[in-house]
Structure formats: structure tokens, C-alpha cells
Amino acid sequence: MAVEIQQLTVEQYLALEAESEIRREFIDGEIFPMTGGTGNHGAIIAYTIAALVNLLEDTDCVVRASTVRVKIDEFTYVYPDVSVVCGESVYADDDENHLVNPTVVVEVTSPSSIERDRVRKVELYGDIPSVQGYLILDQERVFAQWRTRSESGWHLRQFSDLTDEIELEPLGCVLRLADVYRSVKLDA
Hints:
The chain has helices at 10-19, 39-55, 114-126, 177-180, and strands at residues 24-27, 30-33, 61-65, 69-73, 76-78, 82-86, 98-99, 104-108, 133-137, 144-150, 153-159, 165-168, 173-176. It is of the alpha+beta class. A hairpin with a 2-residue loop joins β4 and β5 (76-78). The mean pLDDT is 89.
């Protein structure tokens, strides 16, 4: 069975978002519904936010939840599961839902988003000059991919043990996987 891909203009997308309870990402005219996540997905996001808030308490960095949309360009809007802005937050279009200067973005993979998170969004977040780090967390196993920006592109490090600590250089802190996956039920 063929799947029809709905193409929208930016104006149609923003009007749809303004009237809907469901959030959707908008990438080059295509919409991607942000469906309800699993318990693991929500827990990993919550623990990541809690850990980052504590780690960044005495800094000028602010942690944002997935309700803040990031505008990548005039045709692309996404909802990272977590974003961190260091310094003043800058918004596009006079709309505090269109953040344009995250320093670090975090995505927690789900079966429907894993390919987009690990491939397409690497390119998309790379188009935002302020993004210095991109963290991808797996919801089904202890696994993290941490990408940092360099002059030659993204530098990738991977972590798969609860004792691993990720040095989040752009934020000046260290995130422990044990804190991120705390109390999360994973298949052995």
C-alpha cells in the first residue's frame, strides 16, 4: 500500500500547529507528527532535563523542554526533546516558540524517529551555527551518541555503559548515563 506524503506551505503548517493539540515537525514541506512516547521515552527526557538543570544551575544556560520549537530555516521547524541555550535566547518571527540559537540539542529515539534522529537531524542541526553539540539517547537500551561540532564537521563518540560519563564540552559539564537511565526499565 502506498503512503501519501502531505506537502504543506510554512503558513499552512504554522496555522495547523496553532490550532492543534498534536505537535508536528515540519521538514521541507513534510509534516511528521510527534506521537505519544513510551514510558521509557518520557522518563529519559525527564531525567535528562533534571540532570542538566542541576548541572547548569550556576551558569547562563537554560534547559528547554520539547514544547519549544526550533526554527532551522524558513522551511524547517523541529521539536528537540531537550534543548539548551547558553546566553540570551533568540527567537525568530517575534514568536517565543521559534527558538533559533540552541547550543546543545537532545533527541531520545523512538521506533518512528530513529532514522530521522540519527541521520537527517544531524544535517539539520549542523545548519544552525549556534549548535555545538547533539546528543542522541536510545530508549530501548543504554546507548548514547554525542556529536560535537568541529571545523571539519561533527565528531562522534558513543557510550553504552551505565558507568559512562559524557563530557558536554559546550556546556562545561559532565552528564552521567546512570542519571539519564535512572529507574528506566530496559530489556536485558
